[in-house]
Amino acid sequence: MTIRKGLVKRIHVSQVNLRANRKDNGNRPVFTIQTSKGPRYASHVEIMGASTVVSRPNKPLACGARIWIETHAEVRYVKASKNP
Fold it and tell me: Is the per-residue pLDDT at 81 higher than 70?
């Protein structure tokens, strides 16, 4: 799957899914790609251009993420088999 160039994308790890996978050996998607069109969940993400790693521990995203990757580049991802 692909998200077009130009749209702001914020990519972060879902700590909830990461912990749950560790606990029950599950296969939940651990990457969340946030856009203005809503979140997408993935097991693999490839950024096709420049990106920036952002750390804002005192001002997290609405979802609670304190560290994420932000890009305007095209993003390719492997869609998760099911959303959390």
Answer: no
